[in-house]
Amino acid sequence: MNIAQLLVRSARTFPDRDAVLLGARVCCDYRELARRAGALGTGLSQRVGLRPGERVALLLHNCPQYLEVLYGAWSAGLVVVPINHKLHAREVEYILADSGARVVFTSADLGADLQPGPAAAIDVNGAEYLSLLASDGMAPVHRAPDDIAWLFYTSGTTGRPKGVMQTHRNLLSMTLCYFADVDTVRPGDASLYAAPMSHGAGLYNIPHVLAGARHVIPESGGFDPDEILALARELRDVSMFAAPTMVKRLVDSALARGLDGDGIKTIVYGGGPMYAADIQQAIAVMGPRFVQIYGQGECPMAITALSREHLANLGHPRHAQRMASVGVAQSSVEIRIAQPDGTALPCGETGEILVRGDPVMPGYWGNTAATAQTLRDGWLHTGDIGELDADGFLSLKDRSKDLIISGGSNIYPREVEEVLLRHPGIREVAVVGRPHGEWGEEVLAYVVPRPGHTLDTGELDALCLASIARFKRPRQYLLLDELPKNSYGKVLKTALRDLGDSPNDRRHIP
Ligand code: AMP
Questions:
Q1: Which residue, among 286, 345, 336, has the nearest Cα to 311 in the 3D structure?
Q2: If you measure from the C-alpha of residue 332 to the centroid of ligand 1, how many angstroms do you get, rounded to a whole number?
Q3: CA gap 281, 287 in Å, rounded
């Protein structure tokens, strides 16, 4: 089934319901959203001459046109290539060339520096776009479940990004998991796009289209905590996806203004580690509005979920461990913790997290070697290290490449980070390994202090020694004004490891 059928269905069931809003202003209802998508589909196939299976890239800020382009391309059977607008023009060009995109939908500010090669650029604010929108509508063309719908380039913290293929079946399965494992959605609820729509936040439009919910694009086009808190109070029943750093900023902003997140129904967080102290504070300030998910481009948003009920179950004897976990397997997947040769490990043992099930990608675009390395014996090898407990809760230790081995002992940076974050003077921290002649690697902590706080190595050491083994304690603490992050807000540990080779003495914590 073509995933675009979901919009057709909602447009029949809820034609008059508000569909897309820019801030609090309604741009169109479901009838009009479906009309525009159908017209674009006709325009792309008949006027531009694209055939099902060809690629169409979206290089856009979060904007009201995003959904109509997405569903328009799907209606015509095309493969959407979502591109993060924060990427450098040369990175964008790589993705356009690798995917063989025939068209790139963009806007004047983003397209200015771009040499799109053979891809035709269409400005979503331009005349050509308007004329495509004036085409007659079309019903979505048939797509088989294994046809590709979404070609997402991994954020590529190392090496060239790879194109993850997501089929119509993959996306439908992720959508049904949203209802089964993350949240219910009622017609009239609002999905607010604070994180880039080119990533998982954008994929969450699908359950909201299926349920006839509103889709809200903040006027800032991105993440502004004050704007979001104000919009939520005005629009009510607002849900959104937020990376842990965004949750932190939202909570800080709510605290500073004496707000409690009124109007927010659900914040789904994930995409990077959420430390126990941070989610505790978030719930204390904003209430039980949070659900965690764990996923990756290769199985987007759909590996595990930690429900709001589990987060709220303070009386459970294992509540603390559960809150620090990423929850239990979502309904469509199985999880295995495995040794390097793929053999399953028992509960309580640490190994690589493997996943299989309907949301798992069929492979990387045009890259059989990488596909063979990642999909083995029917399992997706995530590259994440974790542990399952007897109740089925998965705890993430680290990415396999972030593991530090010092004196033959494994040190999971996250464990050390969790401890350091308990210090009231620390805003952010990242722990990495640095080559060491005797030990192989030694532990190094990069620390971002809270404004007005002075840190002291003795105090930080004492904090570590009070809860983790001596050998895990950082041998050095280095101050940074901020941690290097990629355009999705993920901490770039590779950049930190490079910094570690040339430490700047003035930045040591005394
Ligand atoms: P990406 O493919 O860019 O979405 O990155 C996926 C990676 O982010 C995963 O493989 C994990 O390492 C990390 N990640 C995603 N969700 C979580 C989570 N809830 N907690 C910790 N790390 C996460």
A1: 286
A2: 18
A3: 9
Going along the chain from its start, the domains and CATH numbers come out as 5-388 (3.40.50.12780), 403-508 (3.30.300.30)
Among 486, 480, 121, 28, CA closest to 297: 486
pLDDT tens for residues 354-394? 999 999 999 999 999 999 999 999 999 999 999 999 999 99
The ligand 1 atom nearest the CA atom of 300 = 4
Residue among 157, 164, 294 whose CB has most ligand 1 atoms within 8 A, to mutate = 294
Q: Give per-residue pLDDT as tens, 162-174.
A: 999 999 999 999 9
- Burial of 269: CB neighbours in 10 Å, binned 0-12, 13-18, 19+: buried
How would DSSP label each residue in 158-218? SSS--EEEEEHHHHHHHHHHIIIII----TT-EEE--S-TTSHHHHTHHHHHHTT-EEEE-
Which sign does the torsion angle of CA 378, 380, 386, 389 carry? Answer: negative
pTM confidence score: 0.88
**Ligand 1, atom 8: closest residue by C-alpha:** 271
User: Secondary structure of 90-129 in the HEC alphabet?
Assistant: HHHHHHHHHHCCCEEEECHHHHCCCCCCCCEEEECCCHHH
Phi, psi of 291 (to 5 degrees): -140, 135
